[in-house]
Input
Amino acid sequence: MRLLRTSTFQITVLYAVVLAISTAAVALFLYWSTIGFLQRQTDQTIEVEIAGLRETYRSQGLNGLTRVIGERIRAGDDAEALYLFADSRLRPLAGNLDTWPELVSTEDGWYSFLLQSDEKQTNARARVLQLREGLVLLVGRDISNLDGLLALAGGALIWGSGLAIALALAGGVFMSRRVLKRVENVNETTRSIIGGDFTRRVSTRGTSDEFDQLADNLNHMLDRIENLMGDIRHAGDSIAHDLRTPLTRLRHALESTSTTDDIDTMREGIESATEDADRLLSTFSALLRIARLESGGYRLRKERLRLSDLVDDALELYSVIAEERGIEIQTQLDTDTEISGDRDLVFQLVVNLLDNAIKYTPDDGSVSLTVVRSGQDVMLAVTDSGPGIPENQIDKVTRRFYRVDASRRRPGSGLGLSLVQAVADHHGCKMRLANAAQGLAVEVVFTSAVSDSQAFSS
Amino acid sequence: MFRSGRRRTVTMAGSKVWREKKYVRLLVIEDDPSVAAYIRKGLDELGYTVDVASDGKQGLFLATSETYDLLIVDRMLPELDGLSVVQTLRACDKTVPVLFLSALGEVDDRVQGLEAGGDDYLTKPFAFSELKARVEALLRRGQASDSTVTELAVNDLTMDRLARTVRRGGEHIELQPREFRLLEYLMRNAGQVVTRTMLLEHVWDYHFDPQTNVIDVHISRLRSKIDKGFETPLLETVRGAGYRLG
Output
């Protein structure tokens, strides 16, 4: 019974049924418009003749009628025309039929009867006209030709329909096989991906039809999943790698305290171990914070903030570091920069960007900070005069623990920009990193049009 | 209510205040036995008397029937959650200071905790030094009527909050507004360790993670102004914990 459930079978049957119904409809129409038309024409001819003969009888009497019938038979230009004039006991008086036939009434005023001629029987159709003193006149036509035509047409229709249904079944099988083969192609690929071969992709025919689009979408989805998995794997590797160093240091520090009797060495070891443990804790906190922001588990407490105020505060906090290294911070802060956001998170974003900019700017370099409003948007831009980021890595630096090789030796968790990205995403901001003329430029655009109702609902 | 008659008058000088520490009673409402034990052990060693309640109902019962100087309340508790415990206490006009604890991964909305009547907020995992510093700051806050004090003094360092002047040994010290706030906070918590996070929250008014040692830089600037040229350094760095003035 598996056959009944296959799409091939279902599509084929559906296809055949639809074709059979449409063939039947066409046949009926053909029948009605050809055979039916001929039948109606025959009936009309008989009607017209009866009307003519009735008129003759009225004007010229019995003799006239007999004469006209006689003339028509003799003229013989209508071989199918049948006439029989009979008395009240149905004994033939004139006409081209030998005996009064056995009439079978078909419909109102119409009769059919069998016509015996030579060795074959044919069908005939007739009307009967009642005359005076029980005399009757039968006017009819031999419809053997019509019957032949009917049989021919019927045969043609039956054969034609049979052929059509057979073609429909074959076509259905062929078409559904063809379509399902492409579905099977997708199935087969996905099965092998489920089986573990993540490099497989669904093949396309290059016709960009629906199946190609399906395959393309599937392939894009797979690429995206592969990228995400790569990110996760990379993050996992990096966590292991980046946490190993402080853990190793911590272990050494603890070890040194257990192998010494000198109280100062011991204290030093414990202090160093505490610092490393703190660093690990803060790395984990940052990781968890990013994870929670990304998973949407963080409840935003949005309020109206003036971004330039937050930037001022961050500048006030960090300018001391810049001063020590002779870095000049240029600012251009619009005052009309209200946004809706979580104060602590947005401040963290500003601080991380500023901290990064200062960190990667060489001594005596410069950092520029701008907050500008344009329409509904408020843009924060931080540009440093550091080495920038190699173009092929620019979209990777927001990944967790991703560090451009050149910066590996600098202090930092490799989580700063990840957190910035997570906060930006959480606030519906657009974030863009680009290499500027002298260093890296990061732009974060806050759209203040973001629904205020949502912002204050929590 | 936590000002027992046995405690002597409080001064900002610090070290004397806690001689009678053992009479300070703390209640820890925490359902995780290992965390509760960790906190209790640490606070015991500091000389506090610590009670532990393992669920919200028991905690609320103890907090209303006994007298405590400080409550340490976990946010997620069986029976009755931490927020409700504190809200109920506040509704009963209990003004005991409350320090909220919350694990990362839970809804650690600081503002929500503070609005419910909490006085401070600490996110797990935390270093014990951070908890200690905050507990001491909260206990201290309950004792000194902060905001009305106009003159602060630590050794020979004096601050006039109204005139916004700082002197050491009679010598005038020029401070930037932020340095003034930083010093004020340190003086209010004189003798106690304050952590970097506490400084960020109270002096800069932001709860965030400063990627770098930016606070150290501010502290060393302040130190160069108040300690340079004087024989006894007042502002010391406590490794692995924070800073201490006096």
About this structure: Residues 1-22 of chain B have pLDDT under 50 and may be disordered. DSSP finds eight helices and twelve strands in chain B.
